[in-house]
Amino acid sequence: MKIFHLPPILSVAAIAAAFALLSGCYTLTQGTTMLGYLSRAIPLEQVSDSDFVHLVADIRSFAMNELGLAESKNYTRYVELDRNYLAAIVSASDKASFDRYEWNYPVVGRLPYKGFFNVEGAHRERNRLQKLDLDVWIRSVDAFSTLGWFRDPLYSYMRSYSIDRLAELIIHELVHATVFIKGHANFNEELAQFIGDEGARLYMETRYGLDSDEYRQMLSSEENSRRFVAFLQELIAELETLYSNEDLQRDEILIRKEQIINAAKERFDAEYESRFTNDNYRNFSTVPVNNAYLELFRLYYTPDNFYEDLFERTGRDLPAFVAAAKTIKRRNAAPPRTQLENALTSN
């Protein structure tokens, strides 16, 4: 099974994947590889690409000094790699529901993924999970946050990224280094995704202007991403209705599941030209979509628009949004979302 690269909107992070890579029975192999990468990192200023060096420095300054994310030495070092991704991440889900499989790790608790620097290790884990009759998905990630335990570096493949994608990646990961609520994987990813997206947009606006080609290209890419996520959310909702039908036996649910997914792929191809203005998602119908794949979008993107709506009604002030997020406490009885809303609306 190959590693399927998700669109840029989902390729940017597996929160605390470093801990996943450093724990459990595969500690030696994965940990040695990661520490090997870190040991050969060089100071960013030694990289010959001065434009890249200055851009990263400016994005970091923007994230910490203008957005208020935690001061950090992250992304001040650089690692040369011979591939275009960092690690292979395995996710799994029940075949007849969106009940995700989780791994338990020290420090960070339960997480819905397990990472491997060696693809063969990901394949072995996939095979183990498939024997448990689970849907499994392997994806590549191009960055992760070690939550301050290590100085997270940049990797050579990032030099080819568009400015907005690089900004989103760095801001997203710095959010994880600023706010991490143990046991709340959904909240951690949703928050980082939202602040990363909004932060990249604000960065492009302040650095290039609303009328710039760079800003317009970013908006076009964002709009296509939103349409892709909306399509998948429609598919997810249809499957959730199926899975909640208590009158159906599991075998019948699995048959109808495949029918629904295949019909969605046909509809996707038929409507592609009317939905999208680029080719980023054109091969979706060839992807072996399953619950583990779709669960990733349920993890990163909430269909209720909670963060967008809260941001809008509290004045679209991203530094204030970040400041409110930094007040969230794990031991508070209120859920993280409630704490965030209370912090933004209490004054």
Describe this structure in words.
The chain is mostly helical and 347 residues long. Helix content is 52%, strand content 9%. The chain is built from twelve helices and eight strands. Strand 4 (103-105) and strand 5 form a beta hairpin. It is globular and about 60 Å long. The N and C termini lie far apart (53 Å).
Outline the fold blueprint.
Blueprint: H1 17-22, H2 27-39, E1 42-43, H3 50-66, E2 77-79, E3 87-94, E4 103-105, E5 109-111, E6 114-116, H4 119-130, E7 134-141, E8 154-155, H5 163-178, H6 185-208, H7 213-243, H8 250-275, H9 291-300, H10 306-313, H11 318-325, H12 336-345
Parallel strand pairs: 2-8
Antiparallel strand pairs: 1-2, 3-6, 3-7, 4-5
How would you summarize this macromolecular structure in one to three sentences?
Helix content is 52%, strand content 9%. By secondary structure, it is mainly α.
Features:
52% helix, 347 residues, 12 helices, mainly alpha, 3-stranded antiparallel β-sheet
Radius of gyration: 20 Å
Please count the helical segments: 12
Distance between the termini: 53 Å
Classify the helix fraction into a percent range. Answer: 40-55%
> What does the average pLDDT come to?
88
User: Element order, helices and strands?
Assistant: HHEHEEEEEHEEHHHHHHHH
Oligomer: single chain
Strand content: 5-15%
Shape: globular
SS-based class: mainly alpha
